[in-house]
Amino acid sequence: MADYIFWLVVTVTVVSAAVVVLNSQLIYSAVALLFTLFGVAGLYVFLWADFIAGVQLLVYVGGILVLIIFGIMLTNRISSVRISHKSVQQGVGGAVVVWLFIFLSIVVIKTPWLDQPAIEPSSSVGKVGTLLLTKYVLPFEVVSILLLGALIGAAVLSREDT
Amino acid sequence: MDQLNSYLFVAAILFSLGVFGVITRRNGIAVLMGVELILNAANVNFIAFSRFGGMNFDGHVFGMLVIVMAAAEAAVALAIIINIYNNMNTINVDQASQLKQ
Amino acid sequence: MDNIFINYSLLILVLPLVAFVILIFAGKRLPRQGDWVAVSAILVTLILSIVMFIAMLLDYNPGFSQESTFTWMDLGAFKIELGILVDNITVVMLLVVTLISSCSHIFSLKYMEGDVRYSRYYAYLGLFTFSMNGIVLANNLISMYMSWELVGLSSYLLIGHWFEKDTAADAGKKAFLTNRVGDIGFFIGIMLLYSSVGSFLFSDVFVGVETGKITGITLTFAGVGIFLGAMGKSSQFPFHIWLPDAMEGPTPVSALMHAATMVAAGVYMTVRLFPLFTPDALLVIAYVGGFTAIFAASIAITQNDIKKVLAYSTVSQLGYMILAVGTGVYVAAFFHLLTHAMFKANLFYGSGSVIHAMHHALHEKHDHETDPQDMRNMGGFKSKMPITYWSMLISTLAIAGVPFFSGFLSKDAILAGTLAFAQHQPQHFLLPVFGFGAAAITAFYMFRLIFMTFHGEHQIPELVEDIHESPKEMTGPLVLLASLSVFIFYTLPRFNPFSDHGWFTDLIVPQTAVVPGSMTAHQITEYSHHAHGLAMGLSITVAFIGIILSVLVYLKKIIPAETLAKKMGFLYDWSLNKFYFDENYHRFLYQPFLNLSNKVAWIDWELYDRYFINGFGLVTEWFSRVTGKFDYDGIDQGLVDGIGRVAGATGHSLRKIQTGRLQNYLLFVVAGVIVMIIVQAF
Description:
The structure holds 3 protein chains of 3 kinds.
Chain A: H1 2-22, H2 26-46, H3 50-75, H4 90-110, H5 125-133, H6 137-157
Helix pairs in contact in A: 1-2, 2-3
Chain B: H1 4-24, H2 28-52, H3 58-88
Helix pairs in contact in B: 1-2, 2-3
Chain C: H1 2-26, H2 35-59, E1 65-74, E2 79-87, H3 88-111, H4 118-137, H5 141-159, H6 166-197, H7 202-210, H8 216-233, H9 242-245, H10 251-260, H11 262-272, H12 279-300, H13 306-327, H14 330-364, H15 386-400, H16 406-424, H17 430-454, H18 461-464, H19 472-484, H20 488-491, H21 503-507, H22 521-555, H23 561-568, H24 570-576, H25 581-655, H26 662-681
Helix pairs in contact in C: 1-2, 1-4, 2-3, 2-4, 3-4, 3-10, 3-14, 3-19, 4-5, 5-6, 6-7, 6-8, 8-11, 8-12, 10-14, 11-13, 11-14, 12-13, 12-17, 13-14, 13-16, 13-17, 14-15, 14-16, 14-19, 15-16, 15-17, 15-19, 16-17, 16-22, 17-22, 23-24
């Protein structure tokens, strides 16, 4: 049973991702991205990463996706007739990307991943939190500064010159 | 069958699609969406390895950091895109080509 | 005793050359234009030759001979050795050359005073003395030939000294060119000898002839060829044409070159090379000499220019010397060379003195029309110029062959030789006829000269009061040479005026010709001794006949000259005009040759130059155009520009990568990464 759901989630994710990159309408791409992100969150759940799944939904879907949609709204003249955003160099790009995928697949198949014993799922929140403040406190702080910088930068960028 | 390989495949597909989107799409925001796909693919990889590599939570930490960073980056990117739109009335990346010889 | 001869000879040779070099380059800047340089050089050489002469007399060795050779070129198969040869003949000849040259130098101090090219004149005198000594001292054919040429050159330079006068310039050219024609024969003769014998040295050549390396017709030809050089240089018929014209040169030059030394070089050369002449060659020589003697004498009797008379007289006397060589008594020839040098130079100096006085007198009278050299303008100078008169008289007596004078001894020896020759080969009776006939005529015209110049009425009376004796620099040589024309100096240590036995005949001994079949020297000497008495009688008779005839016509004026001239008719005319030799040469030789040259020049200029040379130019021009085109279109456009264009096109196409689109760059990055990894993996 779990397998089917797994494969369903995978399908949703992949198909949505395809829609994101192939669709010429931007809004459709954005909505497809939503579904992709949901799908990824589902994958996290399968990977017993409950906390990360939650963070994904909160930040990615609730924050970034909304931001993207805002951006779309702000930069498109919705009222005008279909703005075609045809993509370019699909041929060559497709070929290269196919090759890339093939290559990655080869790597995935060929590499002898270590066989670890199965472990019971447990709550990850506490563990993650502990890690954040002990082992990875530096990256944590740096990321905070990064956020601060991004905040300030975005504010500066969107300021009007008076 | 949630083997490691499956997750890795998924991540690979997502990554390839993200790259395709980045190099193909003309709209700036569409490019941004491609970038998000790439980041997500990487994240999936992290978490997958985290689970199938002895359930250490380092992967989770990294995943979270990636998400945070993606958010910051998306904010800044959108700010830039809006600026471009205000200046050039278009966000067609082909037209932001002052670097062309 | 040995080395001083060689060393002195070298000094004698080189000193005049040094004087020449100094005077040519620095002459004009020296005080008195450097004449003291030349005079001191020549006096030193005179002293050295006198020393050598005395040494020879003291040694009294007829076989004396010194030779010094050095190798000039050695190319293995081809070797040229040069050097100097000093023997009795050389010593005597050196004395003659230096003595007469010194006299000319001193005489010229006054005669050429104020001349426009004074220092150059003395320089050329030095060059001439050097070259003449070169001929005298040579021990091989090549040195002799080289000095021979130099003598010819000096002659040209000196004859043409006053080259502003066309006649003088032409005379110089004539002398040189006529010499050159003779020299061709000389050179052919030398080469014939060299190719058979393999060396230029006299000694080697004589040995070669003796051992039969060259015989018969070839040897005769070589001998005649060499003699041609002597004919040119000594002005024998038919090359006699240049000597009378050479009188255009200054009189001291005439005295030095055309009386005593240069013209004697031909005689000297035949004397030196006597041993290699075949009897046939000698016959040719004898006839040429004999004919020249009488031929020139027949012209001299009608000439009015005092120097021309002397010039033809010289040609005639040279003919005598050549005749002597031909008949075998070449020692007599050399003897006559010696005596002739003395008295002929004296006669020339005397004429120079007279001409100098005439110039001066005419200048006083501002008369530039009258010819100062024409004897018809002279007359009665005896009282005005006593020293000149007496010295010239003594020399005239010598040349006429009057006993008690030097000329008698030498002429007598020659005539004895010709008589002996004819006695043993009666078919050649003409030779003594030539000889004695010329003697008579010589006496006649020489006394004519004396009578016309110094005796009789003054032909131009107004002139006479300005005629006076010449300064002592000019009369000095006159006196010296006149005294040397007396017999005594030649018969020492004996005193018999009728015999030529003296130091000369003792020391200069004839060599036998090495050509097989010739008469030995001994035979020749014996025969001529037998004929001596008869010859002496004949020569005295003949001389007196000439003198008496001359007295009758020119002194006593019993037989007027004009009637004689009319009676002789065309003979007189021919004689006066030198038998029209120059005119005929011009018509039959020069003119046709010039015409031919003009024709050849026309071919060269009009045809060859215009068509061939210009055509060549056109071809070159066309060719250069074609290559230029090839270079411009092909290479420049094609290669050079082509490379540029390729580079441009490449750049242009590569530029397309720089699209400015970020996504393109991304694509390339990804593609590149994949490629790299694939390469790595495999």
